[in-house]
Amino acid sequence: MTKTKLRLGLVFPGGGCEADFYRFERDTGEAVRVYFAQARYGAVEGADHHPDALRETARVDWIAQAAHRLSQVPLDALVWACTSGSFINGRRFAEEQARGIAAATGVPTTSTSLAFAAAAHALSARKVSLLATYPQDTVAFFTSFLAEYGIAVETSRSLGFDSGWISSGFDGDALMRAAEKAVAPGTQALLIPDTALPTLDVVDALEKRLGLPVLSANAVTLWHGMRTSGRVVPVNGLGTLLADFGQMPAA
């Protein structure tokens, strides 16, 4: 008997990194299907990574409005697939944001920032390095968010991109070089936020080069989306989290 496909709904602002999610879908043998909806997002003089812009992007009504466009799909879980639009107002807001989206849609919901916290805890990574696309003032909000979950950022590197559209054009070779410079000795994982940033083509190679787990926004989004659905599908070649830790019992 053919197993029912796991259906994940991904709501995100902007775009540019759909190929990562389609690669994951392909590598599961289409055991997992992904469905997209684009939400409205804020901008300050064209900068969507500005903290004030992100507070607009984080609006539950905007996210839920986008999610309702997926209402004809029987989703198993929904992910607000935006790191900065979920961490910007801190832990309590991020948790309430996910509950608000779930209440509005009737679908179990998480977000990329909540996924980062869950993934770091699953790996027992309490001291981490951070490579962030965002300007430094926005990076500080993510650092504070992680601290609320007992995760200490030992060192961080900001690429200073003021828009997700810039992140989406950052190539894999440049990402590998930047990641090598971001890691501090003694840290237990490298975190790379921003779902607009393509990572799944390089995360496996990057882990081998660095000798530690790499948690990218798109990897944690998919991993925690599956766990939120109550069913996980392990996938090889896309990093430690989606392979070994994909086999952990769902939370």
Explain this structure.
The protein has 251 residues and is of the alpha/beta class. It has one domain (6-247): Rossmann fold, CATH 3.40.50.12500. It contains twelve helices and eight strands. The chain has helices spanning 18-27, 51-57, 60-67, 84-87, 90-105, 112-122, 136-147, 164-167, 172-182, 203-210, 217-229, 240-243; strands at 6-13, 32-39, 77-80, 109-111, 127-132, 152-158, 189-192, 214-216. The strands form two sheets. It has a four-stranded parallel β-sheet, with helices on both faces. The relative contact order is 0.16. The mean pLDDT is 94.
Chart the SSEs and their pairings.
Elements: E1 6-13, H1 18-27, E2 32-39, H2 51-57, H3 60-67, E3 77-80, H4 84-87, H5 90-105, E4 109-111, H6 112-122, E5 127-132, H7 136-147, E6 152-158, H8 164-167, H9 172-182, E7 189-192, H10 203-210, E8 214-216, H11 217-229, H12 240-243
Parallel strand pairs: 1-2, 1-3, 3-4, 5-6, 5-7, 7-8
Helix pairs in contact: 3-5, 6-11
InterPro entries: Iso_Racemase_Enz_sf, MaiA/AMDase
Organism: Nitratireductor arenosus
Pfam families: Amdase (PF17645)
Task: Write out key terms for the chains shown.
alpha/beta; MaiA/AMDase; Iso_Racemase_Enz_sf; 4-stranded parallel beta sheet; 251 residues; single chain; Maleate cis-trans isomerase; Rossmann fold
Number of helices: 12
Biggest β-sheet: strands ordered side by side in the sheet: 2-1-3-4
Task: Write the element-wise H/E pattern from the N-terminal end onward.
Answer: EHEHHEHHEHEHEHHEHEHH
CATH class term:
Alpha Beta
What is the makeup of the main sheet? 4 strands, parallel
Shape: globular
Task: Kindly report how far apart the N and C termini lie.
Answer: 26 Å
- Indicate the low-confidence ranges by residue numbers: none
Reported by name, the CATH topology is Rossmann fold
Oligomer: single chain
